[in-house]
TrEMBL record:
Gene Ontology CC: mitochondrion
PANTHER family assigned to the protein according to its UniProt record, in alphabetical order: 2',5'-PHOSPHODIESTERASE 12, CARBON CATABOLITE REPRESSOR PROTEIN 4
SUPFAM superfamilies associated with the record: DNase I-like
Name of this protein: Endo/exonuclease/phosphatase domain-containing protein
An MF annotation (GO) of this entry: 3'-5'-RNA exonuclease activity
Amino acid sequence: MWWLLRNAVRHCKRRGCLFPFSISFFQNCASRSDPTIISSVMKRRLQRNVSYIAKYPENVIMMWVGSVPRIARKKISCIGGMEEQSLHICFVYCVPHSKTLVEINLVRPLNELFLQTCDKIKEKISKFIHKQSSEVVCDESDTSEFVFSAPGRPNLVIALVARTTHPAVQLLSTNEQVYKDENVLDMCINNDAYRLLRNPPRCTKLVIKLKPLVGCPLMASFSLSENLRKVEPSFHWYVGEPDACLISPVLNNIPGGKSKYTMDGWIYRSTGKYFCPSVEDIGKRICVLLDMGADTIVYCADTDGEVSEVGEALIFEERQATFCQEHANSGNTRVISYNVLANLYLDLKLRQEDLHFPYCAKEYQNYDYRYPILLREIPGMILVFDENQQDSYQADIIFLQEVDERLWLRFLPDVMSSNGYDCYFKKKGMKVNEGLVICFRRKQFRCLESHNMWLPDLLNTGTYPENADIIGLLKNSDELNAMFVSKPAVIQVLVLDSSSLFAKENGILLLANTHLYFDPRFEIIKILQALLCARWIVRVATDYANRNPKAKLHVLFAGDFNSTPDGAVYRLLSTGNISVKSDCLAYSQYPKIYGDINFTIQPSFPSFNLNLTNLGDETQFTNYTRHYRYNGQIAGFEGCLDYIWGSANVKVQKVIPVPPKEIAKKYVALPSKISPSDHLPLVCDIRLH
């Protein structure tokens, strides 16, 4: 009997479909030979192969035009070649005199006669009824398919119901003509009428990839079809025992705004974009149900593993509890800058000793573990466990670097929005799938303008004459120029209305965010990148001040500058000028560029004077990766690389201390089991004057 169960799973996986056979079907088959064959363990193993199910609306046939799934291309290539766009038909057929539901999924050419498509529908229904009503014959020479006896198949009659035109005419029409003909309202299969629903909202993907951790947001990854009807899906969260299996949800009228669906073996917990497991959920699995409303498919997916807890305090918990219990004092603003470590740069296919962070186990570097912790740390969530509030940074403005496009597209915006933040993302250049994010509390600020630039785009003398000296410098070295224009660094700039902080109009806050090149061997690259960033800020501020002369303009410039406090970038931003000769003389691979060349941030025609001050504490470390490699060599870094700069009318009120170095070194360095990034967030309270 084991081979029968195994082949059932293989049969479904080959067809790329949901599991179509019920456990009762296999029990009936087994009972004819040995009723003790199907044990509870076998049932769980069979059912646990299902991690995704869908419940279809009854008496509705959904039709849409879309691309052909890869799995279907070869199967129907014999029909004169498959077109790029085909007709998809999806519905559930209720077998007469039975509660059995048959899931019908078809992909047919648009130019095929609808009569031929109806024949395919009949064939699918007949095959299923034939299998359900037949005796099982075990053909031991064929271990990959089921072989059944062949009683007579039922007679099925399919007809279209329309406002006008004889149904026979429509059956002789092509699939495309039937799909576009709004007069065709229903399709009858024998005496059962099915309403035709064209281009309904659909979920093309639903999966839970993140690890369910106690106190951390758990979210599903999903994709919706492009549709004229805008849909806001609802997510309902359930918990179940480890051996609970996914079954089709049952519609119930549950009062109080709860989910209207129940599932045997699962307990409803909450509704929302994300769910935070609690201690009582440890050892249980989580299921999410996605509901898009009436006349849509309801989808369910569950986690691969059970809820667990980290088992010790995360690196940020004591810091938040000690220094961030309250919001910044009245009139102050709390600001964070945080490099969250992009998954893009972690090649976890390498051997452990060859990883960039060899001291950190792969399971703690993978995004499925780090993302839930970041989603708990960043937004300042107010969660209730045993009537205790969870601590947070209580930040008003957040600058993030190295934000994976996956983190941005699937997770971060929904969590931040539900906690009162508006968020803006700027992807890096050169098709790099990570970038910058600025978040701010929507109650305090309103975004007026956005000015983002890939830094090499600023190397245009005609458009940006203030950068003529940089362009001239790069022309002296083809190698340096090629290196500079190949870097993906960008600057993200938002102009916010901050009038609420002043209790009067014209308060403007310009936020700038960047992430400079990392390699310490090429300080000249970072100098030029920082210079272009600062000049872009001056240009945007000058332009806004000219258009709004009454504006009270303040600047915050934050990010990962990959430069220590004694480095050239720090000196440039803190003093406003720098000499290339004095700071880059050691790098003799570019001898032609060194001379009496001085750079200054301010152009000769500014109406806005940018005098920046470091608002943080440069004596604190924001990056700790110091470790010994397997060959005994010291590698990594320890020190300050992240800064928050402010214009002269921005004053720092308080700097939140970073965690003690002993905590950072608990697992050698960062990242670790208790730290999702190799950086620590820089946090300070400021006042705008």
